[in-house]
Amino acid sequence: MLPDPNCSIADMNAYGYTAEELLPLSQQKALELWDADRTIYLLYPDNTEAMAFEREEIEKFDGLFGIEREEWQAVLDIEAVKEVVRNSEGSREADLLYSNTSKFGIYQIRDDIDESRNFRFAPMKELEALGPGVDRSNYKLVYTGALDIRDTLTNLHKIFQDFNTNQPSDYTGCSVSVSDVIVLQWRGDVSAYYVDSAGFQKLDNHAFFGEEPNRQAAKSTPEQTNTALANNAQTDS
């Protein structure tokens, strides 16, 4: 993978630079990598090069630029690690709970836990009879998305319907069903709901997450009234 899609090896060779140790860059990409603390070379048509020591040198040079192959590979390796971190469950959960934008998350029973069949699709009463209750360690976060509506009950029903009949193209989980957990984060106020056989049961945040993720003090609001309604509401099917 070349560092600059606008500058090929053929372009560099036609320019007059044929050494294989450097990969070609346009001025724009050279400046971008310079600003990222990468070593940039000025390339000359007589097959020589000179290391840039000042940003101004790159700005004033009207030829091609280069970066060492090994250094570019290091950039790719770092970006790959960053991508893994960005997509890790812990990172996605932190973004769900603490983002400045309102979001929702869908949690589903993990496949790699012992006796997962005892938890999957179990109504709340049956789960409580088994003893452990709703344990975060049994779940994986399968999806997060933007939350645009404040009303709790509307959100829960919409998410339930959308992820049964109108799933986003990037969704890889199962259809939302009994035993799933839906988490709503509205402007820092976090609430978690168990999808029960009849409606949604609100969960205790500390019991589910092992902490209290809310950034706002608890207040009596119309949204809490919706929460009470949601606990007894019938899910749409």
Structure described in brief:
Helices cover 38% and strands 20% of the residues.
Outline the structure in words:
By secondary structure, the protein is α+β, with helices and mostly antiparallel strands. It has 2 domains: 9-83, no CATH class; 89-232, no CATH class. 38% of the residues lie in helices and 20% in strands. It has a 5-stranded antiparallel β-sheet with strand order 6-5-7-8-9, sandwiched between helices. A 4-stranded antiparallel β-sheet has the order 1-4-2-3.
pLDDT < 50 runs, ≥5 residues: 217-237
User: What is the helix fraction of residues, given as a range?
Assistant: 25-40%
Largest sheet: 5 strands, antiparallel
Order of helices and strands: HEHEEHEHHEHHEHEEEHH
Secondary-structure map:
Blueprint: H1 9-15, E1 22-25, H2 27-35, E2 41-43, E3 49-51, H3 55-60, E4 65-68, H4 69-86, H5 89-98, E5 103-109, H6 116-119, H7 124-130, E6 139-146, H8 152-165, E7 181-186, E8 189-196, E9 199-203, H9 205-209, H10 222-232
Antiparallel strand pairs: 1-4, 2-3, 2-4, 5-6, 5-7, 7-8, 8-9
Provide the descriptors you would attach to this structure in a database record.
237 residues; alpha+beta; five-stranded antiparallel beta sheet; 10 helices; 38% helix; 20% strand
